[in-house]
Write a structure and sequence with these properties.
The protein has 350 residues and is an alpha/beta fold. It is built from twelve helices and eleven strands. The strands form three sheets. Strands 1-2-3-4 form a four-stranded parallel sheet, covered by helices on one side. Strands 5-6-7-9 form a four-stranded parallel sheet, covered by helices on one side. α1 packs parallel to α3, α7 packs parallel to α8 and α10 crosses α11.
Length: 350
């Protein structure tokens, strides 16, 4: 499942993440195996719009499909909300979910974990579907993760285990939880593909015009690789995003441009009465600016600095540029040089 993949991010099916994914170079997409946490597409009448957006963004490449509980029981008037809620039905081993996955050629099922999860019945559905299975062990949300990993690995061979530390301002405190799972996997000689993921992207920012913030996801991953050399690990994170929450009113977020590097984010915050153009100028003239990296995210920042119409005017597009650069950097982490050529023009269709 992860052969040839260098990066396995957990991405929510929000417009920012999907736009960032869509605008990656095709060769970069080939290196990525994302776990997509699905939700109805904004203002879409039917849930299938989400699957259409994913295919437009990622083509026919395979991805794992999970469900976003944050968007469950939203009460939205569109049929998409009811169609989405139906996928949480645990009857007959989450049959409705597995039938939906079966209708999406590129999707690999993710075990649905909860008080009525019916693991054995889900395993039977996964075996009949014959696409493999992803097991997402979530910090604070998955009971008895070690026992569950043993059960699933014992029943299916083609399993990728995502050890998801979730989002936290103190992500390093969760390292021991992940380590205990990896230790059990090594002791049991479970030869399965394992991803370690999580997010430390900050919820709030210091009032500095320029700030460097360490990505603790990489710190934890490096520590675990050294400690558990009997387990082959693939790096994952949340694509430089954090937990879904209610939308922030327009104008309430001070303008900011974030520039990802391999191990940190450099955040350029408004100074005085600066707008996005002023901040972008500071970004592209900063010593950290990757002058040889020509992808959609860097183009958006450079175009903003030049005053190009339809460049970054608000935090949504600034976030999409950040996520795009972050995904590309992590997919090529440690590579000599950074692939950035494109065969097609940038698009703003999504």
């Amino acid at each position: 499942m992860l052969v040839g993949k260098t990066y396995a991010p957990i991405l929510h099916a929000r417009s920012v993440e999907i736009k960032a994914l869509a605008e990656l170079p095709e060769a970069t997409k080939d290196l990525i195996f994302p776990l997509i946490v699905a939700r109805p597409w904004p203002n879409a009448k039917h849930l299938r719009k989400t699957w259409e957006k994913l295919r437009a963004a990622f083509g026919t490449r395979r991805f794992a499909l999970d469900l976003d509980p944050y968007k469950r029981s939203s009460g939205a008037a569109q049929p998409a909300a009811a169609e989405f809620d139906a996928l949480f039905d645990h009857a007959d081993g989450h049959r409705a979910y597995f039938e939906e996955v079966a209708s999406i050629d590129e999707a690999i099922p993710t075990l649905q974990v909860g008080p009525n999860s019916n693991v054995e019945e889900q395993l039977e559905h996964a075996q009949r579907l014959d696409r493999g299975l992803v097991l997402r062990l979530q910090y604070g949300a998955t009971p008895t993760p070690i026992a569950l990993a043993r059960q699933v690995a014992g029943a299916m061979h083609d399993v990728a285990i995502f050890v998801d530390l979730g989002w936290s301002n103190d992500l390093l405190s969760r390292e021991l939880w992940a380590s205990s799972i990896l230790e059990a996997i090594a002791e049991d000689h479970i030869e399965r593909e394992v991803v370690v993921a999580g997010s430390s992207f900050p919820e709030s920012f210091r009032s500095l015009a320029r700030d460097e913030i360490r990505a603790n996801e990489r710190v934890i991953f490096d520590n675990l690789v050294q400690r558990h050399n009997a387990v082959v690990l693939t790096y994952g994170d949340w694509g430089s995003t954090r937990l879904p929450k209610e939308s922030t009113p327009m104008g309430s977020i001070p303008p900011r441009i974030d520039l990802p590097n391999s191990r940190e984010w450099i955040c350029f915050r408004r100074e005085g009465e600066e707008g996005f153009k002023d901040i972008a100028i500071r970004t592209v003239t900063d010593r950290s600016w990757p002058r040889d990296l020509r992808i959609w995210g860097t183009y958006q920042i450079a175009a903003t600095a030049e005053g190009v119409p339809d460049s970054i005017k608000g935090q949504t597009k600034a976030a999409a540029a950040r996520v795009n650069i972050h995904l590309h950097q992590q997919a090529h982490f440690g590579a000599a040089g950074n692939f950035s050529d494109r065969d097609e023009p940038f698009s703003d269709d999504l």
